[in-house]
Amino acid sequence: SKKIHAEAHLKITVKKGKPAQTKTQSVILLMCEDEKKLSGEAAAVDNKTGGLVKEMLKSTDFTGKALQTAVLYAGKNAPFRRILLAGLGKKNELTAEKIRQTVAKAVRHLRELKVGQAAVAPEWNLLPGQKNTLVASMVEGARLGLYKYLPYKTQEKDDRAEMPRLEIICDPADYTLAAAEARKANIIADAVCFARDLVSAPGNEMTPSILARQARKIADGKKLSCSVLGKAKLKSLGMNALLAVAAGSHEPPQLIILEYKGAKKSAPPVVLAGKGLTFDAGGISLKAAEKMDEMKMDMAGAAAVMAVAHAATRLGLAVNLVCLIPATENMPGGGALKPGDIVRSYSGNTIEIINTDAEGRLILADALAYASRYKPAAVIDIATLTGACIVALGEEVIGMLGTDDALKAGIKKASEAAGELLWELPLWDMYSEMIKSDIADVKNTGGRPAGTITAAAFLNKFTGDYPWVHLDIAGPAWATKDRPYTPKGASGAGVRLLIEYLKNIQAK
Ligand code: BES
Ligand code: MN
Ligand code: ZN
After folding, report:
1. Which ligand is nearest to the CA of 444?
2. 246 C-alpha to ligand 1 centroid (Å)
3. Model pTM?
4. Does the beta carbon of 384 sit less than 6 angstroms from any atom of ligand 1?
5. What residue owns the CA closest to ligand 1's atom 8?
6. Nearest CA to ligand 1 atom 5
């Protein structure tokens, strides 16, 4: 539909040259804290202005501390109109994450000034020996920082103000590397923006059927294929946990399946399962009215998984991938699931429903059991599963639980590279005691204590004998305030993390 706009808000191109000789609205200089001496491109840029940057650094107006920005007008002897100084903080504390944040701050400052175009040089010595990472983090920071969700703004034209063009200026010797890396980073940024678009879309225009349509649209008919199981098929398969959640809604549930073949046919796939609650009212265990509107974001796991499948295809990653997306609403209609009901899940396990608002684990239970048929190398599910995870870890951190140390280590490593923070919670046997039912095999909540863990313990009852990790993104999926490269709203949590993980496990 026309409302989804995953296309770039910002066009980034790589060019051969020197920033000091570039005709542009603004040169961006990334500066470390207390850098008294200018070197390299910064010195050349400063020379063009007759020493204005040096002059500024002599004052305390700009010290280069993290995320500080300042603007200088270059004067008529320079081919560039302005210099945007952006602080990186201490040189010895520099990371890819700081670069993403600083570049985001820089371009957002320029956007506020309605500057339409800028140029920046990658200073290789910022991250020695990591040229690819430096280019990628610059591109990601700029693209993700400038993201805005605009399809429903029809009046305030000012809100459309963008910084449409950024040039990355580098030495001819580095051009091939920089251009290739920028292309890949742009694909990754597209994926994050695609996930943000899907999550930002309002529930009335992002129903399970519309989500399925979006999935069919990204399938290319070659390496990425899509199939969607509707209500009748789900019934005949016995996906009763998914059907039970959907029973209170007029919107039919969908099981969306995306399959990407990037490795040899026989290679066991990684299965990604994403929670696709296009709206979670809580069902009969109705949620409070306050902030219920935010529950349109309860399909952020689904969005992440779809975005990853799209990016894997565009990047041509050498992996096989299966994405399972159970999609439904959780509504309190007359046919709705009730507390006390017992549901016979796809796995055969019976579930006593204590709280209909613990619905994500129900639909994932069927997806995780279904995953076994693919004989997967690993299964990762990603879900806005528990408010308790926000209580435990805060809004910016993913909760990780799982059964396989190697898989967990791989995801941890990817999280560090992607700058998506995560923390592991334990999955000891005592937690599954807490979800024992008196009359069924399991109950769907264990009460308030350890809410994130008992939810994972519940999921674990439905996993097969494959390595499994669960990612709870209830916090990070939605930013309640602006962060440097995560504007308030849908964040695209998990997308870069999972792409990084898949990159690392590619067949050699
Ligand atoms: N989608 C919610 C979890 C959630 C809460 C995500 C806040 C993002 C922000 C989930 O379906 C839910 O309602 N969980 C309940 C579980 C409880 C009933 C055991 C919760 O967290 O309160
Ligand atoms: Mn719920
Ligand atoms: Zn939910």
Report:
1. 1
2. 17
3. 0.97
4. yes
5. 474
6. 387
Q: Does residue 359's CB lie within 6 angstroms of at least one atom of ligand 1?
A: yes
> φ, ψ for residue 23 (rounded to 5)?
-85, 110
d(CA 182, CA 456): 37
Asked whether 505 and 314 are in contact (CB, 8 A), the reply is: no
* Cα dihedral value 187, 5, 481, 121, nearest 10: 40
Helix axes 495-504, 175-200, angle to 10 degrees: 140
- Ligand 1 near 138 CB (within 6 A): no
**What is the mean pLDDT of the segment spanning 440-448?**
97
Structure-block tokens of residue 487: 């504007």
> What distance in Å separates the CA atoms of residue 314 and residue 188, rounded to the nearest whole number?
9
For the CA of 277, the closest atom of ligand 1 is 1
SS3 404: coil
For the chain, the average pLDDT equals 96
- Can you tell me whether residue 81 is helix, strand or coil? strand
> Does 388 sit in the ligand 1 pocket, CB within 6 Å?
yes
- 284 — phi, psi (to 5°)? -60, -35
Q: Is the CB of 386 within 6 Å of ligand 1? A: yes
- C-alpha 178 to ligand 1 mean position (Å): 43
Pocket test of ligand 1: the residue of 353, 359, 385, 453 to mutate, having most ligand atoms within 8 Å of its CB, is 385
Side chain identity at residue 300, one-letter code:
A
CA–CA separation, 284 and 263 (whole Å): 45
Give the C-alpha separation, 480 to 458, whole Å: 29
* pLDDT beyond 70 at 159: no
| Segments in 146-174 forming alpha helices (H) | none
285 alpha carbon – ligand 3 mean position (Å): 12
Cβ–Cβ < 8 Å for 290, 267 = no
pLDDT digits (tens, 9 = 90+) for 136-147: 999 999 999 999
The long-range contacts involving 433-440, CB below 8 angstroms and separated by at least 24 positions, are: 435/461, 437/351, 437/352, 438/352, 439/342, 439/352, 440/342, 440/350, 440/351, 440/352
Which candidate, 276, 262, 273, places its Cα nearest to that of 214? 276
Question: How far apart are alpha carbons 168 and 179 in whole angstroms?
Answer: 9
Residue 4 has pLDDT above 60, yes or no: no
Ligand 1 atom nearest to 447, measured from its CA: 19
Nearest residue CA, atom 17 of ligand 1? Answer: 358
Ion ligand 3: residues, CB within 5 A, are 277, 280, 298, 360
Element (H, E) at 350: strand 350-352
Query: Mind telling me the catalytic residues?
Result: 287, 361
Are β-strands 398-402 and 422-424 bridged in parallel, bridged antiparallel, or unpaired?
Answer: parallel
What pLDDT was estimated at residue 303? 99
